Amino acid sequence: MMPGDLLLVAEPDYLGTLAGRDEQKLCGKWMPRKKTTCARTSGHGGDCKTAELMERQRAYRRSHPNRQASESHKKSNRKARIANYGLTLEDFVSCCPTHSRPLRLAAYAHRRMQVQPSD
Q: Who contacts 87 (Cβ-Cβ below 8 Å, separation ≥6)?
């Protein structure tokens, strides 16, 4: 530890959320408007934040989860898996005969649904 490094000292209100972070170096930049120091770790990106704001944002994220439908979650995972190999969906369809027919049929059905005129 170097002189001038700040250590996180948890206040009783924040003990549950700051557990396990008590030896990480903090940014420590003084924020005159709030009259406190930044509670984010050193080298963070973006703006500085107080411990109170970070706790408020954690509570908000917990109470407002970003839910994703299972179908779109499966689709995202499939696209990511294919992209990890450096392939596009078209490359995957052309190189994988076992998957190409069902994927081509699904793409065809999707296109037909989009083209049909509404009554």
A: 95
**pLDDT reported for residue 14:** 43
Per-10-residue mean pLDDT, the chain, length 119: 51 44 79 94 92 95 84 85 76 64 69 64
C-alpha 53/C-alpha 37 separation (Å) is 12
Q: Which two tokens stand for residue 81?
A: 């898996």
**What pTM was estimated for this model as a whole?**
0.41
Say if CB 38 and CB 49 are below 8 A apart. yes
User: Ramachandran region of residue 3, left (φ > 0), alpha (ψ -120 to 50) or beta?
Assistant: beta
What pLDDT is attached to residue 12?
Answer: 41
The C-alpha atoms of residue 63 and residue 14 are separated, in whole angstroms, by: 18
Number of neighbouring beta carbons within 10 Å of residue 40: 21
Q: Virtual CA dihedral for 22, 24, 28, 33, nearest 10 degrees?
A: -60
